[in-house]
Amino acid sequence: MTQQTLRTERDAAGAYEILAAASSEAEVLAVLTDEELIALRGNQALDPAGTPFLDASGLDRDPAAAVALRSLTARGLVQFTDEGRENEGEDLATDAPAERTAQLDRTLAGLLTLRSAPLALVNLTRRVADQTTEIIVYVFPHDGVLEEFVTVDGFHHFSVPTREALPARLARYVDQNSVAGDEDGEPIDGTLSDFEGTDSDIARRLQDTRALSVLTTADRGPDSVQVSIMATSDAVFVMDTPQDETSSTALREVSADTLVDLLGTALPEAAAL
Hints:
- By secondary structure, the protein is of the alpha+beta class.
- It folds into 2 domains: 3-117, no CATH class; 167-272, no CATH class.
- It is 30% helix and 26% strand.
- Strands 1-7-6-5-4-9-10-11-12-8 form a 10-stranded antiparallel beta sheet, with helices on both faces. A two-stranded antiparallel ribbon has the order 2-3.
- Strand 10 (224-231) and strand 11 form a beta hairpin.
- Helix 1 packs across helix 5 (106-116).
- The longest helix has 14 residues, at 61-74.
């Protein structure tokens, strides 16, 4: 079932309602599994968050999605009968009355609409040992943002924080043990080899990295930003991710306040897109 490529007036209304309910202390609005996203969006669900559980498990995607669709239907989130349906309004692409084989729960329809049409994206991956999680931030006009947190076992948690609250939320995700200090360190210029392959003090400190996070922004313009963030047992370091091991970059220890400011600055401004 992948009819969500059709966008209706009801989809748009659901999306607007979600963004209008943004909160500085946003709770999880909905949780979907890899299989459920595949059932609802087909291969489009792979972009941008991927399907970590399905990738790791080796399950056949079509049967897994079919089972997930039955679960969504049983929970009343997908409706195949006409009875009790809301009016979808017009197809936004053609202005003709919209027709669908199935209707999604209004919140779910709004979420999928937002997920498929951001002005810009921010991807923040966090790796600890051999496990990787990620947060995807979808940026919209008028400071609207949708946050998708993807666990290693393929659960996609959707929340709608205010844009003002988002940098501190991302900082808590990156620095979960609150090791960032009160003061910034001086920048240190060098290559990856300088930082990783020597017996210097900074190399020894980076060998203590407990969590490596990489922030990447992408918008409709030609530029993107990629920053690496290393949380050790007693500090947080940041650097612009170099293109290769021979390219020079600047590494510095950052305070908790600077980490929040850095993450806020990295968020694309919708008005500039």
